[in-house]
Amino acid sequence: MLFQKTLLIGLLALGMPLANAQNGFSYELIKDIKAPLFGVFDPMSVEDNWVNVVHPVMPDHAKGTDALRQKLDAQRMSRLKGPNTRGNYSGTNTNPSFLTPTIENEYTGGAGGGTPNDNHLAVGNDGKFINVLNTAIRVHNPNGSIAKAWSLEFFTNSPNKKIDAIPALTRVYDPRVIYDPIADRYMIIYMHGTTDVTSFIVVAFSTTNNPTDPWNVYKIPGKPTNDLIWSDYPIVAHNSEDLFFTVNLIGNGASWEEGFTEAVIWQIRKEDGYKGDTLHKNVYTGIKYQNQSLRSICTIQNGPLPTGTDNYFITLRPLDEQNDSVFMLRVNNTQKSGSAS
Fold this sequence. Notes:
By secondary structure, the protein is mainly β. It contains two helices and 19 strands. It has helices at 66-78, 270-275; strands spanning 8-13, 25-35, 39-41, 119-123, 129-133, 136-140, 146-151, 172-180, 185-192, 200-206, 215-221, 229-238, 242-251, 260-269, 279-289, 292-293, 298-300, 311-316, 325-331. The strands form four sheets. Strands 2, 12, 13, 14, 15 and 16 form a six-stranded antiparallel sheet that branches. A five-stranded antiparallel sheet has the order 3-11-10-9-8. Strands 1-19-18-17 form a four-stranded mixed sheet, with no helix packed on it.
C-alpha cells in the first residue's frame, strides 16, 4: 500500500441510524434481534475427529487485482535495503539474540490442511487451552496433551437440538475462539456456506470453564441485510458484557475482493449464551464514508481483561493504490442497556 504524506483519521461513533451523515458517514442500527438456543452440544458424546473435512475450493481472489498486487510488490521490494528481505529500512542488521527467544515449554499441535489454515488459540485461567485449525477443534490440558478433539460440524449435528434451524453442513471455515477470564468461559465462532442460501454463523458458548463439558449453540444469519450475499472472515473481541464480531458480506459467485458489498458489526449479549437463554444481539449495517462501504472492519480487544462497556474498531482502504485514511469506530454501551450507540 502507498501512503501519502497526510493521514486522515475518521472517527465514527455509531449512534442513531444515519448519524454523522453530515461528516460523510452513514450507517443503520438494527436493535435487539433475538435468536433461540439451537441446541446443546456435548463434546464427550462424539468420537475424536483428527482430520479436516474436505470441502469444495473457496472462491479464488479476483484476477483483476493481480496487476495492482504485482506493481505494489515490485515497489515494496525496490525499497528494501541490505540482505534482510523482511523490511530492514535502517541498514543495520538486527541483533540475532533478539530473534532467538527462550522456549520454556512447547507442545506439538495437531496436523491440519487447508490454505490458509485459519488457526486460532485461547488460553483459560487454569492453563487449559483450545486450538482451532480450519475445521478441527482441539482442547489441550495445561501440559499440552489433547483432552478432546472434534470437528466443527459436530456442534450442529448434535442429537441435543432444541430447534431444527440449521441444515446439514456443507462448508465450515474461519473458526475463532475467545476466552472470557472474568466469566471463566470460552466462545467459538465459525462460518458456514458461501452463498446466500447456505450462509450462516455458528456461535457457541461453553457452559463451564471445562471445554469438554456441554456448549450452548446458536445460529446467526449470514445475510442480515436480506440481499444475495454471504458472510465471510469474522474478527472477534469482547468487553465486560458483549461479544463483538465483524464480517464482510460478499456477493454470490464472486471473489472476496470484487464481490464485497459491506462490512457489518454484530454485538451479542454474552450472559445469554452462557446461560443458554434466548440470545439478544444488535447489528450495525450500511457503514459507509462518502457513500463507500468500509471494508474488513477489525475489532479491537480493549486490554488484557474484557472490562468496560464500549468497544473500538479500526479499518482503512485496503484495496486502494494510494491510501491516506484510517477509520476508527466506537460502539458505546452494552446490548442489554438498550441504548448502545
